[in-house]
## 1
Amino acid sequence: MKIITIKDVEHIAFRLAKEMLSYNEPIPDFSTRFPNILESCLITPF
């Protein structure tokens, strides 16, 4: 079983935003998210 890392999520989120945005607005920096929330969600299943 492969554990999903923060780097994996960042890459996926960036790719999805790039593909799905229909207007020319900059993609927010990934570091603007709430700290430790995503890490907690990713580690909980393991």
## 2
Amino acid sequence: MNDPNIKRFGYVDYLKIGVLGFALTALWSSLHSIILPLRLLDYVAESQKNTYLGLLTFAGLILAMITQPIAGSMSDRSSLSWGRRRPFVLLGALLAVVLLPGIGLADSYAVVFIVYCALQISCNIAQAPYQALIPDLIPPNRRGLASGVKSAVEILGGVALVRLTAYFMGHYFEGGGESWLWLALGVLVAVLLTAAAITVLTVKEQPGNSASGLPFVNPYKSFKIDVRENHNFIWFLVSRALIGVPGVVLQIFASYYLMDVIGIDNPASAAGNLLVVIGVCLLLTVYPAGRLSDKVGRKPIVIASGLLGAVGIVCLFFSQTYLHVMLSGAVLGISNGAMLSSTWAMATDLAVKGEEARYLGLTNLAMCGGSAMARLVGPVIDFFNRFSAGLGYQVMLLICFISFVVGALLIIKIKPQGFSTLKEQNKSG
């Protein structure tokens, strides 16, 4: 490449624009996989735990789907003197830090519900503008690399903090007292504050071009897409929503699956170990997959990773011991690692110039839509478990298998001309 600014963008800079993802992934992975499943057992009946957890997180994801495109549109059009993205990062992070203690203070399911929904809004105010930093600052033929680094940092956050959270909440589950819950929440607050400070203080971006600092945004236009002009993006959104379902299903209901199907006595610790295995395999895969997608294109990597994920679900279906579950988790980790970096790089390729935050917000809307569908698997599990013990979890795995296969095959519908420029840039670079 001939642009000298690109050469000056080193690996430390890639890390700077990915560090907030570390904190957000740590937050949501810890809440969804460990803290909320155990916290809800304080308020809801054992036979309805999947239903209540699924409905709680479904409501939060709907709010995330609404918040991200609107916050992204405001960020695209803002002209605050210290950048289009960082003010939103700071605002959303501070709101989340104020809200997090509410999970520990809650004395009923209703309070947990309200706090969780407010957390979704605040975190997505930060996330939509933050994720536009890659198309803002990175040239197209380096976005696979940038997406790989971003995904690796996010996975590292999930793995490191989930295991620590699992340790704390394992004591809470065994009746060790609320101090363990507060330790877990306190660590998440500290990590989120630190990551937001690094992003705000170290990332260099240009102020926006809007005539006003924070412009009014028509909510309808925030969600509007010209289907005729952007049909590739529509197919991508549908595919991404489906491919995202299995990972969320397994993350949310892993503790209950290990408790009810495999018979683990301490599901918090076991779920933490499983997520570490998945996370390590994600880390080993996500960076080389991102680099490879810069060379061969995004589609082959996305399709292959989706089909490999289906294989991992089959392996999990036939797992009878904790060791078998861990091995299946390794396959799923490899699949999701390749998928994360390649799909995000594809999203940055397809985002319309000048509206990057809005389009990436719509990408996350699709991901949130898939996540919301995944939450509704909770009532499905409880419904089928009434007929036969464990039947609900078999239906859960079938849903995951179908989502992987159909989501991967839909990528074929995306026409290749959107990536021809990328290949030309690779040749010239």
## 3
Amino acid sequence: MGIDTERDIEANLQIGPTDKGMVRLFVEGGGMEIPMDFTPEEAREIAEEIMAAANRAGGGRPARKR
């Protein structure tokens, strides 16, 4: 299985700051809870990777500004 393999699993994703100055991605699904903590710099790198993937998936269109 890889990143392109479809799965019929539902999960919730929450993102927010912790009281320790970290950024937490909290994934909950399938009876599991997965908290992942990142430094602010790591979180920015992850955000850049997500934006790059969204741009590739959307045919290279730039992100819309709000």
## 4
Amino acid sequence: MLKDAALVPYIPVSDVARARRFYEQKVGLKPKEEYAGGVIYECGKGSWVFMYPSAGAGTSKASTAFWSVEDVAAEVRELKARGVVFEEYDMHGIKTVNSIATAGGAKTAWFKDSEGNILAISQRL
């Protein structure tokens, strides 16, 4: 049953080499395995993400994936120090302050990868 299966996010990229530099150098992920032209990255608590080549990279206007973190402000500071640029929003229901929005029971910060995909880090309150 799907309710018992792990869910694995896929992140489409148009340039695997460029995306690898972003995810490995700026985000700090370590590659576990190269697979089908892409790369599997292990994340926390046994989770993982598959980055794969796709012509549809960066076309979604919504978040592709998010990391659940204990301290979103600390993560934002660390990622900014590595050169990650965060999105700043001021729209209905979402306003970022120092790159972080507080709404819906969470503090969340969004950034785009080298391919234009929207990613987030989020701390539940």
